[in-house]
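Hi all, long-time lurker, first post. I run a small reading group and we've been trying to get comfortable going from sequence to structure in the token notation. Rather than ask abstract questions, I figured I'd post a concrete chain and ask someone more experienced to write out its structure so we can walk through it together at our next meeting. Sequence below, copied exactly:
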Amino acid sequence: MALSGKGRELLETLGKRISATELTNTGLTVGKHDYAVLVRGAVSQIDSGVEQRDSALLAGARGATSLVFRDERFQLPRLEVEPSPALVKELSEKLKPEEGDIVIIGAGDRMLDADIGSKSAALELLRVL
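-- Answer (accepted) --
Happy to help. Here is the structure in token form:
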């Protein structure tokens, strides 16, 4: 199998828009393992994060939490709640967020479930771009 020209173009575009990392236990989610995916410049595409959570659940994760990076800080969409300083530090160091980025943290009983869930949620978010 080989990617078509269109497939290579899509993969290149996704590579510029998405980065991901395993996280230590965040205390923010419902699973044993957490995996974060950053989607560049997608702040205008998110509402409450429910759609992303549902996508992660359908992919086998235990849940997903979306965070908006705005005004040099993370917050839950539509709320003035900020995550713990330890999580903010880890996300900032590993993902290097910029204004208008979204981070989706998938949670799972296995790291693979958290990984696939967060990536599924990111693709759900990009679906509307």
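A couple of things your group might point at:
Residues 61 and 113 are 5 Å apart (CA to CA).
Strands lie at 18-23, 33-39, 63-70, 73-75, 101-108.
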